[in-house]
Prior knowledge:
alpha+beta; four-stranded antiparallel sheet; three-stranded antiparallel sheet; 7 strands; elongated
Amino acid sequence: xxxxxxxxxxxxxxxxxxxxxxxxxxxxxxxxxxxxxxxxxxxxxxxxxxxxxxxxxxxxxxxxxxxxxxxxxxxxxxxxxxxxxxxxxxxxxxxxxxxxxxxxxxxxxxxxxxxxxxxxxxxxxxxxxxxxxxxxx
Length: 137
């Protein structure tokens, strides 16, 4: 079963990062127009580089493994056996709830996987697949 991240969910994560960058620039920055330029560069880097990378995320739940793939220029794949998944957590903030997306987190023995930007119904379905062991032989 395959699940895809949405651009809307990736944009919400980008908004969180830009707001954190704005707080850091205006608290610790030099002030004036230099702070505004720093914030503009930070926002361009987040929305130009990170958001498309997060929006390209794919989650595959097979009969014997769980794998996640993300990235455009430098794709990354993370794969672990399905029997070693020890937890599946779904994080929804009020802004995520308004947009219908969530952050999906998997824990395994020795690893942790965070996948932001998935639709809430897909995350619930993935959690049900893993917790009830549906689809296994």
